[in-house]
Amino acid sequence: MKRINSIFAIILLLVVMTSCREKRHLGNDDIIIVDVTKGYSPQKDLILQDFMDVEYIPLETNDDFLNQGFVQDIGKEIIIVKNRIDDGNIYVYSRTGKALWKINRKGQGNEEYSYIFGIILDEDNKEIYVHNHYERNIQVYDLFGKYKRSLQYKEKTNNVSYSDIINYNKDNLICYDAYNKDRAFVLISKQDGSITQKINIPFEEIKFLRQVDTGRNASVTPGPYRKIFPYKGNWLLLELSSDTVYSFLPDYSLRPFLVRAPSIQSMEPEVFLILRLFSDRYYFMETIKNVYDFDTKRGFSKTFFMYDKQEKAFFGYAVYNGDFSTPKEIYMNALRPVNKEDVDSWQALDSHQLVEAYKKGELKGKLKEIAATLEDEDNPVIMLIKHKK
To answer: What is the spatial distance between Cα 169 and Cα 311, in angstroms, rounded to a whole number?
Structure first.
């Protein structure tokens, strides 16, 4: 095995060197090599609004629309929201936050869902896709909750569901199939769930970002991370078992985007590279060490850093919300992705915290205007983080 790993490492090095010499590009950017063993410094302090656009959407509150503002998807005209603890409710808001209608098809019937793992919006086809986790299927409804069809999983997934299901185009969803023996990204038909394209990323051995204690019959992970990123008309695909993050192009080809070093296949314990947010200038990432102590319940140590494309260098960072007059840090690993090209992420801002900040004179701009109209018990305000126009 050591011999195989050595050969693999040499091949990887040759690939990276060749890629760099040829200056293969995604847009105008050279392939980036990320050393996951480093602690990057110095730190840059950034204001989010300097490199991303921000939009605030106060979710209307009434007796039928009381929720935690857990955004599932955002379209041009509507927003889909649910509660964090699944109660079957799907709240449909206008793009400005006006409460429109509520859907609940929770149950055990063929046209119902038992648990909502995620909701994908397809405004063009006027459909929503509810990922029915325990039944390993996707229930398709119109925008008002009328049942249309079910998409059954077409391959065995070891009783574990697809993840990162995203609206790919008018005919397909793109998914990550992490637990299949042929672990891959796949395009599945919106009509019957069949796999229309399998996107295999080469790697030697499957690696999992988790720790298992067989004696306690317990397993733990450091939390969710994103595997599929819409970026500049293409898609970035993160496979933890591979040393390369690829760009998936419209012709179904893969192009190297960035490479980690040393190889994940050579590390014990592993240090995994996680991607968080991509702007025109900054790429935000983190590394997670795959170590956890079940007695102390501590582990998965992280290093946060970014790549500055303008300076072609890595830095530590702190990002602040410019709509607060006192420093208010935004944590990139707390942001949640949105399946929309012009919107990267969202975060729910609790109304009672905004009301308190308003009373203390800590807000400005549009956020201050919105907070002035809020009550403590109102639904959250959704902060959308959008790419600069």
So the answer is: 35
